[in-house]
UniProtKB/TrEMBL annotation:
Coiled coil: none annotated. Residues 1-117, 153-224 are annotated as: Disordered. Pfam families: CRAL_TRIO (PF00650), CRAL_TRIO_N (PF03765), GOLD_PATL1_C (PF25099). Its main location: cytoplasm. This is Patellin-3. The keyword Transport applies.
Amino acid sequence: MAEESSPPPPVLEQATPSPAIEKDKEDLAHPEPVEEAESQAVKEKEEVPPQPAAAAEQKESRSSSLAAMIEKEESFSPTAHPPPEEKNEVTEKSAATNEEVAVVPDSGKEKQVEEKKVPQTLVSFKEESNAVADLSDIEGRALEELKQLVQEALSSHQFSSAPPKKEEKQSASAIQETSKTEALVSDSDVGTEMKQSAETQESKVEKTTKKESQEVAKEGQKVASSSPEEVTIWGIPLLKDDRSDVVLLKFLRARDFKVKDAFVMIKNTIQWRRDFKIDELVDEDLGDDLEKVVFMHGYDREGHPVCYNVYGEFQNKELYQKTFSDEEKRSKFLRWRIQFLERSIRKLDFSPGGISTIFQVNDLKNAPGPGKKELRTNYPEFVAKQVFINVPWWYVAFYTMMSPFMTQRTKSKFVYASPSKSAETLFKYISPEQVPIQYGGLSVDYCDCNPEFTIADPATDITVKPATKQTVEIIIYEKCILVWELRVVGWEVSYSAEFMPEAKDAYTIIITKPTKMSPTDEPVVSNSFKVGELGKILLTVDNPTSKKKKLLYRFKINPFSD
């Protein structure tokens, strides 16, 4: 799941602690993707300077052509779900019936055996296990130490304790001053009555002091004897079950398993959540004006929910003014963004074997540029992979400049693709039926206009080589109604469909005559055919261009009776 060039997030500024959220939100230019706090690398800008050799490598990488970088094709980790190798013929069975599907290339040339190209891969991020048994000895000890610190904090109510009140301090100092004054008066050369009154006042002060100290001691005993406080983060109560281990591991990994740093981070996050009233915010109604800017749609090949951030939507002046024109609107946007993130996180599975991270797709088409980060520190380690698509030239320049300040762990999570490679890159990590139609896939919202297929219906993707024809054969063994949909990303091909009966003397039935499809045509072709005799459906795509094309199709068999 790695790529030859690993990009940075759109913005690398570390989110400020909780008080700074209110201060910095006026600088917010567009929504930010979910990001993990990565070992304080950006905040401290790598306190250890790079070695001369590393510096030389950085200099060399900066001098490389930006155009060359943006055209690099992402390599895919063999441990994930690699795309299927191109074959001269592919045959598969329909789950519903006995229909067979054969994909037959028709290039008009002799078949040639191609040498396999070894993909060039860099280190790709692989999610660590959250099971305690899978942790190393160092990681296991760090988790136990952090749990001990959290337990002590819960028992002593450190997460909710407030600093001593000023009034109590002032009253104690006033008592001390009074006692000093009375002592001076008693030592002065005055009458007996003055001395007696001073002694009486002094005894009263001593009694008051003892009484207050006793009350303070009693309060301390009450706190010590009371049950530990209950604290939840992202809807998970701390130290109640094994889901708490997953939460704590996120903070530990964000701080390179430095226990004290992770504990401070937890305390700051809990305080920020209380200041921002997160639990109340989750249930507020903030409208749906921004549902096209940030939205969840489908799952990747490993089961992570996919979040799309579409920055180009803010090119709409009306939407931009409605979101950022004044302080109140910027504040509402920030609250909406946090609410969306919080709701999405609470749907994750925090059990040790569950999926507790998100796959993020960032569409940089017409993006206004880098913006401030607001949510990084308080939502650590929630991104499994960041894919940036439709990457413009300025982003490559931005990455070249900022890459030396990023850790390898951070960079290993990022994949980026130019506009021409965006759909192909997404298909490496997300099945075509799960990818929204606007990004080259087949997924649309279920409605009356598309009643046949849903996101649960699998699709097949095939690479059509330059200057070749690709034919999909669907063999029919019984009477039925065949329904299919097909698309070629970017089209620039010809498409036809026909039914060829099995009987020798039967005529071939043309369903769709050869039609040239341009990029402006409908992205998906849907059709159906009533099959009354045995035979096969032939779906043919002719690619006359010098570029590879990605063909997607899926079909269903519906029963048919006379």
